[in-house]
Amino acid sequence: MSVDENIAGISNVLLYAAMAAYLFAMTAYAADLAESGKVVKARRGEPAARRAGGQRGASAGSAGSAGGRVAAPPAPPVRVPRGRRRAAAVGTSLFVLATLFHLGSVVARGLSVHRVPWGNMFEFALTGTLVVSLAYLVVVLRAHLGAGRDARYLGVFVAGPVLATLGIALRTFYVEAAQLVPALDSYWLVIHVFVAILASALSTVGFSATVLQLVQEKRERSRAAGRVPGGAFMDALPSSVELERTAFRLYAVGFVMWTFTLIAGAVWAQVAWNRYWGWDSKEVWTFVIWVVYAAYLHARATRGWDGRRAAWLACAAFACILFNYLVVNIFFPGLHSYAGV
Known about the structure:
Blueprint: H1 5-60, H2 86-113, H3 121-144, H4 155-173, H5 188-224, H6 240-273, H7 281-302, H8 307-331
Helix pairs in contact: 1-2, 1-4, 2-3, 3-4, 3-5, 5-6, 5-8, 6-7, 7-8
C-alpha cells in the first residue's frame, strides 16, 4: 500500500502540539512542587522550632550527651490538600491535552502507512512515550477515585523524560513514514514489540520513582542527623519507603512483560529465521535486561535488599534498557536493525 503523505503530515503537526503541551504541563507541575514545598515547610516550621529549642535545653542539662548534640527525629509526612494544588490541576489538564495530541499523532502515523506505528526507532519512541503518559494518567485517575495516593508529584518527572525522548527521537531517529521491510512485516510485530513497549514504559516510570527515592532517602538521612536538607520541594513528595514500594510494583509488572517479550521474540525468530535463538546482539541485550531485573526482584524479595542497594540495582537495569535502545540498535550489527536507521 502507498503512504498517505497528508495524514503523515498531520501526525507530525499533532506531535509538535503534544510537545508544546507537555512543556507547559511540566512547567505547571514544577510550579506545584515549588508551592507545595513552601506549604509543607511552613507547616513543619513551628513544630520543628519547638523541637529544636527543647533539644537545646535537654542537651544543656545532660552531661551524657556527645557534645550536646541530639539527632533530630525524622519529620512526619505532611500532605498538601488537593484544593491547595491548583498548579497541579492545571498541569494535569495540560498533560491530558498533550496525551490526546500524542495519541492522535500515533494513530495518524499508523493510518498513513496502514500498519501498527512501531516499525522503526522513531515510531517505537513515539508509541513508547505515549504508553508512559497513559500509565501516569491511569495512576492519577486511580488516586482521584480514592484507590491510592495522589500521584501528581510524578508529573514533572514524567513530562520531562517524555518531552526529552520525543525531542531526541525527532532530532536523531526521525524517518519519513514508509512501509516495513519484509522481515518485520508480521503479526508478531504487533505482539512482540508492543509488549516490549509496555515493559519499557513501566520501567521508565519506575526509574523516575527510584531516582526520587534515592534523593529522598539522602534528605531523610540528613534530617535525622540534625541537618537541614536542601530541595524544599521534595518535602511535598512521599517518603523514600513509599517511593520504593511504588517502583517495585512497576518493576514487578514490567518484569512479567519482559519475560513475555523474550518468549514472543524467540517464537518470532523461529518463524522468520528458523531458529529460536541465534545470539543476535538484540537478543542478547534483551536477555541481559531480563537477568538484571530478575536479580533486582530476587534480591529484594528473598535477600532482604531494600533502600539504596536495591535502588542502584534497578538503576543498572534501566541503564541496560537505554544501552539496548540507544547503542545496540544503532551501532551493533544484527538481524534486528530497525528500518531507516
